[in-house]
Design goal:
The protein has about 120 residues and is an alpha+beta fold. It has one domain (about 10-120). It has four helices and five strands, in the order αααβββββα. Helix 2 packs across helix 4. The chain is globular and about 40 Å long.
């Protein structure tokens, strides 16, 4: 959830949300994943959220969020799998490190993907 106010721009909202997600402990999300995503400049411009230990990235800061950015799932046996947001019906690959996995996400961003925008998916 964001503390969105009319005077805030999308970049400020995204930055504040990243600070929140970066502050989460390991009981919420694996910090290696968060740091790896944040290290990718194109991903750092997107709005982050966490659900069930998974980092979700959106091209907009409002609800409903976009669902077109690939997702990284940690694998129980180690490593990471990158799929489309809808689930495992399109697997981009399995990777040994979070850095490799989020590089794959950055390589498969939707066409024309730029910084997150104010509003919802309907405003893209």
């Amino acid at each position: 959830m964001t503390d969105e106010t009319p005077s805030q721009g999308a970049a400020e909202i995204v930055e504040a949300q990243w600070r929140t997600v970066l502050s989460y402990g390991p009981e919420v999300i694996e910090q290696e994943m968060v740091r790896a995503a944040y290290a990718e400049p194109r991903l750092r411009q997107l709005f982050p959220g966490v659900s069930h230990g998974i980092l979700l990235l959106s091209r907009c800061v409002g609800h409903p969020h976009s669902r077109d950015v690939p997702v990284v799932y940690p694998l129980g046996e180690g490593g990471y799998e990158v799929t489309n947001r809808a689930g495992a019906d399109e697997v981009h690959g399995r990777f040994a490190t979070a850095e490799e996995a989020f590089a794959e996400v950055a390589a498969h961003l939707p066409e024309g993907c730029g910084p997150a925008v104010l509003g919802s998916v309907d405003d893209l």
